[in-house]
Amino acid sequence: MFCPKCSQQQVSEEVRFCSRCGFSLGAVRELVVSGGVDEGEGKAGQLAPSQRNARKGAWLMLASLAITIFVGFLTAVDDDLAVLLFLPFLVFILGFLRVLYGVFLADKRAARAKAKADSKKQVVPIQPGEPGAAARRPELSPARVSPIENFSGHRIETAEMVRPPSVTENTTRLLDEELDRRRE
């Protein structure tokens, strides 16, 4: 794999960041695995959340018109069914509110939900032999530290240290002994 920012060839397919520029390669890996289709973008023919909600609201308002005609015929037959005229009015208001929600709030809410999902999503490296399979290995090995329980701060006094004898002292002593033997 090559970094799309600096074109540095990566040593391993499991790295998360470019070794030269630090670019995050997790999103690039997901894009390659998904075949070039970003999950955040809509597929061809798919509507945005605001458009879907506006359409649903328009359909509800159109349905309220059909319900009004039907209730009008029922009211013409029997005047006691005039209470049912409240139903198409309620459906129309619900449709109108759905259109308003779609126009003003749906895209913002979808963007907030996507950002929240992206922050929770953790990119896991793909193993070379398993396309699409997630590896569950920790990046760093666990700490190998054992606590020091009985540590005493005992310090050595430098006055107690004995200087090692030098090589010349031993040689001089041997020469002195040799001289003493010759004199005797």
The arrangement of helices and strands along the chain is HHHHH
Number of helices: 5
Shape: rod-shaped
Q: Give the number of DSSP strands.
A: 0
Characterise this structure:
With 184 residues, the chain is mainly alpha-helical. 48% of the residues lie in helices and 0% in strands. It is rod-shaped. The longest helix is centred in the middle third of the chain and has 29 residues, at 49-77. It is built from five helices and no strands.
Question: Topology, pairings included?
Answer:
Elements lengths: L25 H8 L15 H29 L8 H19 L1 H15 L46 H17 L1
Helix pairs in contact: 2-3
What are the main properties of this structure?
mainly alpha, about 180 residues
Q: What would a concise description of this structure say?
A:
With 184 residues, this protein is mainly α.
